[in-house]
Amino acid sequence: MIKIAPSILSADFANLERDIRRISTADYVHVDVMDGLFVPNITIGIPVVAAIRPATDLPLDVHLMIDRPVRYVEQFCRAGADIVTVHVEADSQENTLRALDIIRGQGKRAGVVLKPATPAQAALPFLDRCGMVLVMTVEPGFGGQSFMADMMPKLAQLRAWIDQRGLDCELEVDGGIDPVTARTVVENGAAVLVAGSAVYQAADIPGRIRELRG
Ligand code: DX5
Ligand code: ZN
User: What distances in angstroms separate CA 107 from CA 58, 100, 104, 112, 183, one per listed residue?
Assistant: First the structure.
């Protein structure tokens, strides 16, 4: 079944506990961490992950949009993250491998993320250590942007490699996902859909989550 990971970037941060309860029928809580360097925006970090951990039974899917994430992955795991994904563009191959090993060593699911300009091949050195690969369908940094349909060949390529190798690796998409684009990404192999504005702007949030799941 398709999994839905609402992004709390579109939640009301003054009412975060309430807004996390509102997505209790989803599969993961997607947490967008931005440092103002890797992306031109600053959001939330380790203390917020620790604070929301007791507020939900759902796994926390932490998307690190930060420079040299190897420096912080252990702290995010200790704060309560269940899945931690790092951008392949954020550090050297050696340090990215090290970050994935640290996350796995903490007993968590590790993953890599590809920005729109990054080819599918960039995930290959990491695939056998990944429990998640995340394909950005917008430029990371902000919610509410338009879906980039031209990412679909990349998504389909990653689906093919994951299946050919028989990997226990979820394929996730993030950015501009709504009930229409959700069908497109699922057709191209996505299994986990991140959605921020499409979930939090809906009048009926459980209904919207069902609709996205298809
Ligand atoms: C963008 C974030 C996304 C964002 C998605 O950098 O990684 O998770 O919140 O928001 P929507 O679904 O509104 O495009
Ligand atoms: Zn994200």
Answer: 16, 11, 5, 16, 32
Ligand 1: does its nearest atom lie under 6 Å from the Cβ of 178?
no
Q: What's the pTM value of the predicted model, to 2 decimals? A: 0.98
Cα–ligand 1 centroid distance for 30 (angstroms): 9
- Among 156, 158, 160, 192, smallest CA distance to 173 is for 192
The distance in angstroms from the start CA to the end CA of the chain is: 9
Is there a contact between 125 and 154 (Cβ–Cβ < 8 Å)?
no
Mean pLDDT within 92-103: 99
CA distance 98 to 50: 23
For position 102, what pLDDT does the model report? 99
pLDDT digits (tens, 9 = 90+) for 41-86: 999 999 999 999 999 999 999 999 999 999 999 999 999 999 999 9
Residue 197 near ligand 1, beta carbon < 6 Å: yes
For residue 157, report the distance from its CA to the centre of ligand 2, in Å: 21
- Ligand nearest to C-alpha 197: 1
β-bridge mates for residue 61, sequence order: 30, 83
Which residues lie across from 192 on neighbouring strands? 3, 172
Q: Measured between alpha carbons, how far is 127 from 94 in angstroms, rounded to an integer?
A: 14
The confidence score (pLDDT) of residue 27 equals 99
Which residues have a Cβ under 8 Å from the Cβ of 113 and sit 6 or more positions away?
63, 85, 86, 87, 88, 133, 134, 135, 136, 140, 174
Q: What's the mean pLDDT when you consider all of the chain?
A: 98
